[in-house]
Structures are given as C-alpha cells and as structure tokens.
Amino acid sequence: MKQLGKKIWDLSVSYGTACVLLIFLFLLTLFGTLEQVEHGLYAVQKKYFESWFLVHELSGVPIPLPGGVLCMGLLSWNLIAGGLIRIRKSRATAGVIIVHIGMIVMFAAGLVKLTASDDGYLRLYEGEESDEYVSYYLWEVAVFDADSAGEVNEFLISDEQLRLAEDGSVRISHDLVPFELELRHFRENARPTREDSPLPLAGDWRLLELEREQEAEGNIAGVYATARSAAGGEQTAILWGLSERPWVVEVGERRWGVLLRHKRYRMPFSIHLDEFTKLEHPGTDIPSEFSSEVTQGKGGEALPILIRMNEPLRDEGLVLFQSSWGPSNARPGERLFSVFSVVRNPSDHWPLYSCIIIGIGLLIAFTEKLLKYVRAQNRKRAEEAGA
C-alpha cells in the first residue's frame, strides 16, 4: 500500500502529468470553440468547462474526455504538490515558487468564479431606477399576495427545483402560502398554443415545446402549475416566461399571484438612468460609442457616475458594463433604453493579483539566472587572465 501510495503521489506531481492535463485543456478549448458555432456559448461552457466528464462526438465517433473542472482540479493539485511542497527550497528556486503561487491564485479565481458568482443584465429607460438585475438563463417562480399593498413578500421556487419538473413533478408548499403548488412538464423553450401538442391541455391551452435556441438567453421557459388548497380546491394553469400578468390563484377571499420569470438578484445600491447617449459614425446609423449617465443611490447618497464601453462601474463586488441599447429600430427622438451587463464575482481582481505575483516571480527567477551567468563569465575571464 505504501508503494502504491508513493506511485500515485509521484504520478500526481510529475511534469508528465502536468503536460497531459495541459493537452486535455487544449483539446477542451478546441472542441468547445468548434461546438459553440452550433450550440452557443452557455451550453458549451456547461458541457466542456463546468463538468467532470463529457463525451465529444468527432465525425460520429464518441470520445470520452475529462471535463474542465476535473482537469483544473488535478492541475491545481499538481502545482501545489509539485511546485510548492516537493520543490527544493532555496534562493535559486525562489522565483519559480512565487510563479507557482501566482498560478494557484489564478486557478483559485476560476474556482470562486465557478462556485460563488452570478451574472445577468439590467435594462433601464431614461428616468427609470432599479436595485435588481435579471439572470440571462436561470428561471424562478414567484408566489406573492396579489392583494397586498406596498412592498410585497415573495415565496420563490428556484431554477434547480423547476428543472426537476422536466421529467416528473415537484410539489412545493410554504407556511405563508395557503396552498400546495405542483409543477410539471417544465420546458426550457416553449410557447402556449391551442394547436395539437404531445403535452396535456390546461383549459384551452397547452405548451408546445420548441427547439432550444443557440444562445441560451433566447429560450423562453414554460411549466404546468396546479394549486391545491387545504379546502380541496384545485386550479391549473400554464406559466410562461413572457406572460405580462401573473396567474391569479383564489383561496377563500384572498388572491395570490404566481409568476414565472427570469431569476432576479438584489443589488446593494440602486441605479437611476439619467441620460443615455449614442454616437454614430458620420453618415451612417452604426453606433460608434454609447454611454449612460446614471445616479447611484447608496446609503442615502446620490452619486453621479458615467458608465461607458470599457469603463464599467465597480462597487461592492458588482461590475456593471455598458453592453447594449435599444430598441434597435427606434426612430429619431424616440426614447431609448440602456442595457448593463452585471457580474457579481468575489474574485474579480484576483487575475490581476495573479499576474502581478507571476511577474514578480519571473523577474526574480530571470534576475537570478542573469546574476549566475554574470558570475560565471567573471570567473571564466579571471581564469583566462590567470592562465
């Protein structure tokens, strides 16, 4: 067992293992890039880079491959064990050790981004304000008191729970809601129809499943919902992601709203769009630059900020990029909206720190090599002079 353990240790920290893992990462990047043409960025990212294992089809031949998570995990261990624990510690290897530390910080940034980040968008017309942004891909069902005045408390059903209803049914209840909600036949991309469909009727309507869009944000989800109250009443409807109004469930004398929507995230500040500016190339309607003058509401303060392309707003772990605008067919003088891509990433600056650490390590390593070369040349000249 000791010999087996030593062989596993030697294999995991060897240069050969690092080279094999780098080759696999190259193949994942190559195949993922080619696959993106047909399946879109989101699906490729999930399959190739956020997975443990996958099967890639090459000319009809299935090729099993380790996923990006497994490759990066093993490579991180290889760097830690081989580059920090096993390496000989001396002045000559100080730079190499620092380089390895910088690479580990870079890998740690990727791990934090994978497990603790989220992203979405915020769309505002001039004069509008919001302290929430919306996911591009994830969905949720919100249940709330439709008769409540003022701020409404919502009971939320997550994207993970919704997707459990794709092949079966999910029953969910909450102490504050006087009925049980059953969800079934969740479809990532669908639309309500009165035409024939394999899915069952809900009143006069049923869901028609559509092919998934290449870009995941183009999918509009749908799900069947049945509300059952303790009194024995049962109400069924179709929830659709583009519905303008919630489904109203009546229990006794109270009414409850049920709405399928993109997942929302609360920001620690609000954004008010004061003015959106779009500059065009002379003689064309092609935008050369667009920017947004906003007011950030934070802690009772109103801070004027200009968000431009490549000049995002960074605050409290959030990054707001100027990403788009619309409507694209707006006539001169028509009110425009501004779209901000929003990313919550606790490790946002870690890649910068990693590059600084790696740069310092390379500087120390090359300086040590240069000094060693200079000393060797001086000794050689001294020996030649003595001879």
Question: Would you mind describing this structure in some detail?
Answer:
- Strands 3, 4, 5, 12, 13, 14, 15, 16, 17 and 18 form a ten-stranded antiparallel β-sheet that branches.
- The protein has helices spanning 2-12, 15-49, 68-85, 94-116, 159-163, 350-386, and strands at residues 53-58, 61-66, 118-125, 129-145, 154-157, 169-172, 179-187, 190-193, 206-209, 222-229, 234-240, 247-251, 254-280, 287-298, 301-308, 313-315, 318-326, 337-344.
- The protein contains six helices and 18 strands.
- The termini are far apart.
- The chain is α+β, with helices and mostly antiparallel strands and 387 residues long.
- The chain folds into three domains: 2-116 and 349-386, no CATH class; 118-131 and 265-344, no CATH class; 136-264, no CATH class.
- The protein is globular, with a radius of gyration of 28 Å.
- 33% of the residues lie in helices and 39% in strands.
**Count of discrete structural domains:** 3
- H/E topology pattern: HHEEHHEEEHEEEEEEEEEEEEEH
Question: What does the largest sheet look like?
Answer: 10 strands, antiparallel
Shape label: globular
> How big is the Rg?
28 Å
Number of helices: 6
Distance linking N and C termini: 59 Å
What's the rounded overall pLDDT mean?
89
Notable traits:
four-stranded antiparallel β-sheet; 6 helices; alpha+beta; 387 residues
Strand-helix topology:
Layout: H1 2-12, H2 15-49, E1 53-58, E2 61-66, H3 68-85, H4 94-116, E3 118-125, E4 129-145, E5 154-157, H5 159-163, E6 169-172, E7 179-187, E8 190-193, E9 206-209, E10 222-229, E11 234-240, E12 247-251, E13 254-280, E14 287-298, E15 301-308, E16 313-315, E17 318-326, E18 337-344, H6 350-386
Antiparallel strand pairs: 1-2, 3-4, 3-18, 4-5, 4-13, 6-7, 7-10, 8-9, 10-11, 12-13, 13-14, 14-15, 16-17, 17-18
Helix pairs in contact: 2-3, 3-4, 4-6
